Amino acid sequence: MEGFQSMTNVDGVITLTEDARIPVMDRGFLYGDSVYEVFRTYGGVPLLYDEHWARFENSAALISLQLGLSKEQMADEIRQTVSLTNAAQSGRDVYVRFTMTRGEGPIDLFPGPDLQTRYVIIVKAMHDWKPEFYSEGVNLAITATKRNPKNALDPNIKGGNYLNNVLGVIEARAMGADDCLMLNAAGQITESSNSNVFFVMDGKLVSPAETSGNLRGLTKAAVREACRARGITTYEQEIAPAAVIEATECFVTSATREVMPVRKLNLGNGTTVEFPAGGGALTRQVQGYYRDYVDAYLASHEHLSFF
Ligand SMILES: Cc1ncc(COP(=O)(O)O)c(C=O)c1O
Hints:
With 307 residues, this protein is α+β, with helices and mostly antiparallel strands. It contains eight helices and 15 strands.
């Protein structure tokens, strides 16, 4: 049986990821002038590809980027790239990151009309998070680094410029945490570096309001939908750090983390809030709801399987 190999597709040229190259004059490299999405497969079926594409289109619109491929063309390129990884033969699920840059041109911030977009699809084996992140939980810290304001670099632009998030996670690690929880300029909680956050407050599931400035996470939306289907109301509201001292549970969501409990939250002011190891009762319930949601999705989308 052949082993898995990570493959990358740059404008239709598929090579081993370690051999993939883009020109240094690409604006994605020079300015982070690009948009991207990440999804994973389950048994070869891509989870929520249509929804990822819709968010990709929204990110592109927010940066005035005309996408150079259709949803179907991108899916076809992804499928071809996956087929060269030996994912099927090695029984590995994959992580897919597709990017579109504004292309290469002169060193000039203004994107001229002659630029041609470039796409890059990276396919690698789905990685495993540390088991402790589930058996215990992840440790977060509220950083001094604030989330980009919506009216500067809208967090709904899932773009190649993630320096804000990089600085947040660097600061959180220096504080001894695994990841950051960033506030907006008004001091309200927004999100972690690459995941959305939920709290259990007064027995209710609450996540930060979209107006606080955070990415519209697809896993968060799936969790909310799965809860709604079971008659559990979830809430979105502005959340100040002081309010979470009383929170009884906390978890983060993303395509690759799924529903990951938070063990400790360092508020950055000398106070650390602790949550139940491995997630409290509601967190574990939500983990189950999300698994069921994924299973139902897979059952109705088998025809999309990459292998
Ligand atoms: C900043 C940020 N917030 C939240 C998320 C979670 O989004 P999703 O659930 O769609 O993976 C991500 C993941 O890509 C992210 O980068």
